[in-house]
Amino acid sequence: MKNPAELRRRSVLRGGLLGAGVLAAGPVLWSLPGHAAGGDFHHLGSLSTPDANGLRLPNGFTSRIVARSGHAPVNGDQYLWHGAPDGGAVFEIADGGWIYVSNSELNRSRGGVGALRFDADGMVINAYPILSGTMRNCAGGGMPWGTWLSCEEIAKGLVWECDPFGREPAVALPALGRFKHEAVAFNPATGQLYLTEDEKTGLFYRFTPDRIGSDGRPDLSSGRLEAAEVLDSESREVVWHEIADPAAAELPTRKQTHGKATVFNRGEGICHHRGNIYFTTTGDNRVWRYDPSARRVGVIYDAGEHAQPLLSGVDNVTASDSGGILVAEDGGRMRIVAVGEDGKATPIIQVVGHDFSEVTGPAFSSDGKRLYFSSQRGSTGESRDGITFEVAGPFPV
Question: Which of the following CATH numbers is that of domain 7-392: 3.40.50.300, 3.30.420.10, 1.10.10.10, 2.120.10.30?
Answer without folding.
Answer: 2.120.10.30
